[in-house]
Amino acid sequence: MKNQPLPRRLAALLLAAAGFLPAPLPASEGTVLAAAGRAPLAADLPVEVALLTEAPAVPPPITRRHPAKVVVRLEVREVVKRLADGVEYTFWTFGGNVPGSFIRVREGDFVEFHLDNHPTSKVPHNIDLHAVTGPGGGAASSFTAPGHSSQFSFTALNPGLFVYHCATAPVPMHIANGMYGLILVEPKDGFPKVDREYYVMQGEFYTAGRHGEPGLQSFDPAKAEDERAPYIVFNGAVGSLVGDRALQAKVGETVRLYFGVGGPNITSSFHVIGEIFDTVYLEGGVHAAQRHVQTTMVPSGGSTIVDFRIDVPGTYVLVDHSLSRAFNKGAIGMLKAAGPENPLIYSGKEVDEVYIGQASDAGVAASKREAELTIAKDKAIAANPEIANLTAEIRLERGKKVFLTSCFACHMANGEGLPGVFPPLAKSDFLAADKDRAIKAVLKGLSGPITVNGKPYNNLMPPQDLSDDQTADVLTYVMNSWGNAMGSVSAADVKRVRSDNK
Ligand SMILES: [Cu+2]
Fold it and tell me: For the whole model, what pTM was predicted?
């Protein structure tokens, strides 16, 4: 999804929305109120399903001029994704991405909020929306165990741009893993129209490894306590707004950024290099409180709305102007504006490559080429029979060790299982028939009636807490032991099955 061009993504979302949004109701706010003769009750309100978007897209402005009951469905998912080139992290997300899905409602709307926690989640989560008036902002009513769903409602009394986040203990850890997003409560009469709206959020990641250290990184609680973040980024990853993923605009257009800071700890000195914010809605309030601003301070758990007009073409660079964060930790993004030059305003020359370093076109091209070469190298190594044999042998020995720790208690050291209780892995037709199903059994467990080599089993295998590599190794071992010759499983296979949340 992340790599799809924006317009296509938005178009897909709009199409999806068209299918389930009810036709707009003719009633104006006045008639709804008058018909009821009192403040409208939720039951009187027309019902809408909120259209949620993935950053940097923003749902379209609300055009209705009356309150509605808006149903919001947000799903928490724990997913492994890219944090930087070669670096991965297990993100805890509202909707599958960091930041969480953008929610847009109108002042006075009655919001029926559903929080689903995907069954593959490891821990419970909840949500505290700063737009909610009431203790905990929804947190107490939304505590949701994996595989469960909870519901609460609130009236969006105050317009503005609000942060939402998980508030399950340890709260800083849940937020540091990516559990934050923005909810916009549009004022009754809306905001002034602009040509483009984008969603950007800053947050920091406390990885065990240093910045750039490759591999799957774990959360480091000591670094979080000391606020020593190796990564400070926009939209959940280094480079999520550069190269092909840069924000787009044209000369003469007005752009609005809905910008928030998830934190959990670090305040942003938000700045766009080469632009001046024509209007800043300070702290995400609804008053165009300041004009002609260079840098605006955004607290952790806070937001801002900035509007500016693009006068000359080129690349505008979004940064946290606490600049080590931009140039060393990742807080750098781009807005690319196409259109005719205007030498009266600016005499020209594109932003200097030396200046933006890795985020420049040359840097982005280098990253892409590096990724291609790494794939080519892995292919070349895999194609070398000697290396391939040694790799396979290492993998079998490693897999045997995993088997002897995690599987043999039930499936027995010789893979024969236990009649009627634990099915055999030796010569198992069930195992041979479907590799992905076997991976899934190890990752997510298996229960219910199955038939193995003609014999029925109806028992429960608990999920095995193994890494992608360990899972690949143990299954490869199983598939090549006790007379089995069923091929092999790679870490990439496991990763694919793990992230396939069905
Ligand atoms: Cu959480």
Answer: 0.69
